[in-house]
Every structure is written in structure tokens, then in C-alpha cells.
Amino acid sequence: MKKDEILLLENQLCFPFYAISNAITRSYGPLLKELNLTYPQYLVLLLLWEREGRSVTDICNSLFLKTNTLTPLLKKLEQKNLVVKRKDHLDVRKVLVFLSEEGKSLKEKAECIPQQLIETTNMKVEDMKKLRSLLNKMMADITQNSTKDGSS
User: Fold this and answer.
1) Which of 120, 116, 122 has the alpha carbon at shortest distance from 34?
2) CATH of the domain at 93
3) Does 60 map to a domain?
4) Per-block average pLDDT, block size 10, for the chain (152 residues)?
5) What is the largest CA-CA distance in the chain?
């Protein structure tokens, strides 16, 4: 690549990620509005539907969030009666997050969301799986490298 082309927006890897992230988040908006959830709240619930009783630290690490970002998110989910926080009986310094009955029942209403989002694209499911695999590898590599150099 020529030196004068290196800073062209069209040559940046970061821009398509930024743009598609915004587009996907906007696509989730109307679907999540029906459930009275924001996108970050939905991500927390996805983790808890997978396995509840997660520590705040585990949720932060899984979602690449800092505790000062997650804490107000959990507070809102508590106010909506979707989650309950409890001290870990083995280590009282740890806070564990559980689903309330209402949080558990919301899972059924949310099950249609991934398919509805897939239908907004023209991609084949196989292509989406390949893309997700590549993105997960890239995310793991970047995360591992940023941990090595102390920038996390």
C-alpha cells in the first residue's frame, strides 16, 4: 500500500467493525424494545441464561466490560426485577448474579431475536459461522496480545 493511501478510511480495518457494530446494535433496538431491554442488558441476560450464578468479575471478563460499566447495568436489571445479586457464601467478597423468575421467563420471549436478526442480512448461516469463528479468533488474539503488553 502506498504511503499516501495508508490513512484512507476505506483502507482501515477498524471502520467496517465500527460501522457494522453500530448497525447491528441499531437492528437489535426494536427487537429489544419489546422486552424493555437495552443491548448491554441483553448481553448480560444471555450470559445468565447460559449459566446463572456468575460473579460480577466473570460477567465483566466475558463481556469485556469494566465494573464501573457493569454495576449500573446490573442495578437497572435489578430494578426491572430480572436479576438478583447475592454474596458468595464461600467468599463474601464476591457478588454473584442470578436470574429472578421474571428474568428466567424472559428467555422464552427472547428466543426469536437471533433468527430475526439473521433474517435482516443476506448472508448464509454457514458464512455467518465462518465469520464469527474468524472474529472470535481475532478477538482472542487481540485480547491475548493486549494482556501481554499490559494495555488491558
Assistant:
1) 116
2) 1.10.10.10
3) yes
4) 88 93 93 95 98 95 94 97 94 93 97 90 89 93 76 54
5) 60
What's the pTM?
A: 0.87
- Residue 18 belongs to some domain of the structure: no
* 147 lies in some domain: no
Distance CA 13, CA 5 (A): 13
∠ CA 136-141-143, nearest 5°, is: 90
Residue 6 — φ and ψ, nearest 5°?
-65, -30
Domain span including residue 54: 32-121
Rounded Cα–Cα distance for residues 23 and 33 (Å): 16
Tally of domains within the chain: 1
Per the domain annotation, does 17 fall within a domain?
no
Locate the DSSP E strands across 1-152: 54-55, 83-87, 95-99
